[in-house]
# Entry
Amino acid sequence: MKVTAIEEYGLRCLLLLARNGGESMTLSEIGVKEGLSVPYVSKLLMILRKAGLVKADRGRNGGYLLASAPQRVTLGEVMNSLGEPLLSSGHCKRYSGERDSCVHSADCSIRSVWRSFDRIFSSLLESITLADLVSGGDRLGAFGDFRLNGSASNPQQRDDVAEVPLRNANTLAT
Amino acid sequence: MKVTAIEEYGLRCLLLLARNGGESMTLSEIGVKEGLSVPYVSKLLMILRKAGLVKADRGRNGGYLLASAPQRVTLGEVMNSLGEPLLSSGHCKRYSGERDSCVHSADCSIRSVWRSFDRIFSSLLESITLADLVSGGDRLGAFGDFRLNGSASNPQQRDDVAEVPLRNANTLAT
DNA sequence: AATATCCTTTACAAAAAAGTAAAGTATATT
DNA sequence: AATATACTTTACTTTTTTGTAAAGGATATT
# Structure
């Protein structure tokens, strides 16, 4: 279960632009600020441009800038532009082993899990904007304390899984 | 954001063993049932054995079987054995671009998001056992309706993000 | 108009992940 | 003991992802 390089770096570049207050930045400026090579930044920004998340001005005084205000860009849009969701439409065909279609395609309990995770993930991603990440602190810190509850749509069946305890944080390099 | 092949197929093999009622299965039996090549199944089961999730009997009448009862094996243990968590300890070093350490290592708002997601994921994974997947239906169907609430530990700050609506399900191949 | 700057496109190279092959070791049956 | 079965180990090949290179096209300045 991993965040891909394109997703990680692409999001970083967008965030950098979001922090730049509507001013455009050149590929080399972005490269320097993010510690990435110019050709690689070029590739990332091209993906973002084709997805409509950034605009480019060519020629002298050119550069990249966000296509929309940071408050209007959700992480959902960003992640969908940079990579596939956890459970993509191609998942079952991709992981079909030696066959053309997965032996579990008719009835797959694992897929149910991934689908649930994908939904949870997506709704969280949709709820966070680039502006939230720029302002940092308040909005974001709150997510660290999230826990899961069953929904109200099917209340009689979920007492056993409500209020799942959170595990300890990972130890990070920094 | 993706589930790796090792994670997907490894989990499938464990689930197959869980459904086999404590009886051992040979590599070729597993391969046939899962539509995977024997050498590949061999690789997967070796990873699982070294992680202590399955036991192997060698020689004639040999085979693999779960090391613990399905009720006692969580998806958390499984996923941790087969791959890295969403935010691993090596994340910041891995995605450091051209430098030795990431330029954001001191203060990274993206990391906060991944950390939160990782915690949510992990607590869900810890709450699901192989037995839950085997029995299917009730326990699992419930997850599809999950939604997120803020926790009680910091209640005054999270009204704005409580009750996030779920997006529509992905269209799958089947 | 020439030029320097900066984005665009296509193709290629390197690294990582996925998947295969083959020779080796252990065990039960004959 | 010989043999067939089945796991184990190491090395290798293929595919995918990541990252680089280079030539081309657009725009503002001089």
Summary: The CA atoms of residues 6 and 37 of chain B lie 13 Å apart. Chain B has one domain: 5-100+108-142. The longest helix of chain B spans residues 109-127. Residues 150-174 of chain B have pLDDT under 50 and may be disordered.
